[in-house]
Amino acid sequence: MGKQESNRSILLGAAFLMATSAIGPGFLTQTTTFTEQLAASFGFVILVSIIIDIGAQMNIWRIIAVSEKRAQDIANDVLPGVGYFLALLIVMGGLAFNIGNVGGAGLGLNVLFGISPELGALLSGIFAIGIFLIKEAGKAMDRFAQIAGFVMIGLTIYVMFTAKPPYGEAVMKTFIPDDISYLAIVTLVGGTVGGYITFAGGHRLIDAGIKGKEAIPQVTKSAVSAIGIASIMRIFLFLAAFGVVAQGFALDPSNPAASVFQIAAGTVGYKIFGIIMWAAAVTSVVGAAYTSVSFIRTFNPFIDKNYQWFIVGFIAISTIVFVSIGQPAKILVLVGSLNGLILPIALGVMLIAAYRKKIVGDYKHPLWMTIFGIIIVITMAAMGIYSLLNGIPQLFK
Fold first, then answer.
1. Cβ(121)–Cβ(323) under 8 Å?
2. In whole angstroms, what is the distance from residue 70 CA to residue 10 CA?
3. Alpha carbons 252 and 234: distance in angstroms, whole number
4. What is this structure's pTM?
5. Between the CA of residue 330 and those of 173, 247, 289, 395, what are the distances in Å?
6. CB pairs under 8 A, 24+ apart, for 248-254?
7. Which of 20, 37, 126, 264 has its CA 20 to 30 A from that of 215?
8. Long-range contacts made by residues 357-365, C-beta under 8 angstroms, separation at least 24?
9. Element of type H or E holding 251
10. Which residues of 267-301 are buried (b: 16+ CB within 10 A; e: fewer)?
11. pLDDT, tens digit, 9 for 90 and up, residues 50-81
12. Cα–Cα dist 370/349, whole Å
């Protein structure tokens, strides 16, 4: 494989790693739940969130590439200590969400083979660990993310056609919605580029040596491709759910995504849901573990040298917690709320870094990108604080 082909493979791998990290159990549930609430108008929410996602991700990936450093080191360069705080938020969020992701993988195998979700979670955890025990772990992770991404999108397209959604209405309401849900927009942005997710691909490119000013065109393309892949999945899932909702069917509140697939395509649809749920969950387990550890590996030479074993340990802890005590709901609520603050802090720090010569050298960050980034920081910070204030009271109910 030539250098150009190898680079293309890494760029595609990074895009799929980020996209499949975004497409997890929460992604499936949120998309179907909001479709039931907003019907065709949910298309508008998806459109707005895609624009915000691209703005956030392009800013972050470009600045990581130009500085040739990971986000936590850039943050510490901007203001000592901020990188440690960011890493703490990312690792806490990654671990809590990984418990949910492992649970989702267990549920997927439960649907497919009828085994208990706990056994399914254990087997899925072992599978995810296996990826990082392979000598070329980075390549294995890239390849798995790509295959799983294609499988999920292909199966969702099949179910979408079976559901026969009113396409015309969906297109019209995407641009002229009946109602706008700000909560849905924040939730979608948080679920696509919030927490550790946006850094999954950015850090993968640094690890693979794709960095520096000359790599900016490739990095920008990879960043936009990643949002594109996640958004394609979101759009097809929305259309499948909208087809079911438009026919007057009610979704099962305990598992709205499963009921979309079952109503649209019967038993085959339910099994397809099992495959998608498992693939979505396991790729998110891999992405969360890899990215969380990438946030602490530069703090200590021992962690850096043995980072693959730290990733293995991270997945093992997530799996053991789920199998022994299930999903700790209160922790997930709190961390979900904290997750909303990661994007504005990280993006805000990146935008400051873009204007520090000692970090980016003679690189000139486009003004329109900076303005776009500042708007996203302010909006997401306000919404993040709102979700945190609403999340904490739930813990004391």
1. yes
2. 17
3. 19
4. 0.90
5. 36, 36, 21, 6
6. 250/36, 251/32, 251/33, 251/36
7. 20
8. 358/77, 359/67, 359/69, 359/74, 359/77, 359/78, 360/63, 360/66, 360/67, 361/66, 361/213, 363/66, 363/213, 365/62, 365/63
9. none
10. eebbbbbbbbbbbbbbbbbbbbbbbbbbbbbbeee
11. 999 999 999 999 999 999 999 999 999 999 99
12. 12
CA-closest candidate to residue 62, choices 289, 373, 375: 373
Question: Which structure tokens are listed for 380?
Answer: 């997401």
Report which secondary-structure segment, H or E, holds 248.
Answer: none
High-pLDDT (> 70) share of the chain, %: 93
| DSSP 8-state secondary structure symbol assigned to residue 254 | T
Q: Which two tokens stand for residue 9?
A: 């493979």
Residue 365 CB partners (closer than 8 Å, separation 6+): 62, 63, 351, 354, 355
Determine the Cα–Cα distance for residues 201 and 214; give it in Å rounded to an integer.
18
The full set of domains in the chain, from first to last, is 10-395 (1.20.1740.10)
- The chain-wide mean pLDDT, for the chain, equals 90
Cα 394 to its chain centre, rounded Å, is 24
Which DSSP category does 136 fall into? Answer: T
Write b or e for each residue in 3-12: b if 16 or more Cβ atoms lie within 10 A of its Cβ, otherwise e: eeeebebbbb
- Given the structure tokens 């703090």, which residue do they identify? 299
Question: Rounded distance, CA 163 to CA 157, Å?
Answer: 10
CA–CA gap between residue 232 and residue 163 (Å, rounded): 17
Burial class (CB in 10 A: 0-12, 13-18, 19+), 141: buried
